[in-house]
């Protein structure tokens, strides 16, 4: 029998799908428009997102509730949302790093659940 899906799994999958194309990922802002101008994650003309911004879009909110961001960050192995944002925005961070971290978390959730 398959293990039960955790609540994190659908969100991890949605964020991974949004960021699958490297052109749809950014750092330094929650999102950017086609001109590269930074905005909140749910900005209607956004074309790319950081990992935290992609989370906001996946749950369709612009929530600044730290506990919600922390829970998502913890599913990726970070202590809190700020640590996740700092990791995303690190100068040496690559799109491949983002996708690998999401894939690892998805696999962990699929195999072990909560």
How would you describe what is shown here?
This protein is mainly alpha-helical. The protein has one domain. The protein contains five helices and three strands. A three-stranded antiparallel β-sheet has the order 2-1-3. Helix 1 packs across helix 2 (51-58) and helix 3 (66-75) packs across helix 4.
Query: Major beta sheet, specifics?
Result: 3 strands, antiparallel
Helix count?
5
Radius of gyration: 14 Å
Q: Note the overall shape.
A: globular
Helix and strand pattern: HEEEHHHH
Concise overview:
The chain has one domain. The protein is 50% helix and 8% strand. It has helices at residues 8-19, 51-58, 66-75, 81-89, 95-112; strands at 31-33, 38-39, 46-49.
Q: What is this structure's SSE topology?
A:
Layout: H1 8-19, E1 31-33, E2 38-39, E3 46-49, H2 51-58, H3 66-75, H4 81-89, H5 95-112
Antiparallel strand pairs: 1-2, 1-3
Helix pairs in contact: 1-2, 1-5, 3-4
Descriptive terms for the model:
single chain, 114 residues, mainly alpha, 3-stranded antiparallel sheet, 3 strands, 50% helix
């Amino acid at each position: 029998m398959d293990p039960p899906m955790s609540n994190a799994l659908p969100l991890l999958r949605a964020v991974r799908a949004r960021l699958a194309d490297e052109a749809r990922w950014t750092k330094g802002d929650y999102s950017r428009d086609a001109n590269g101008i930074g905005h909140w994650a749910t900005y209607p003309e956004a074309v790319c997102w950081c990992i935290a911004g992609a989370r906001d879009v996946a749950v369709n909110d612009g929530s600044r509730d730290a506990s919600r961001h922390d829970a998502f960050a913890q599913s990726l192995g970070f202590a809190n949302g700020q640590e996740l944002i700092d990791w995303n925005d690190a100068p040496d961070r690559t799109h491949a790093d983002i996708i690998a971290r999401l894939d690892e978390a998805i696999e962990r959730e699929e195999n072990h659940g909560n």
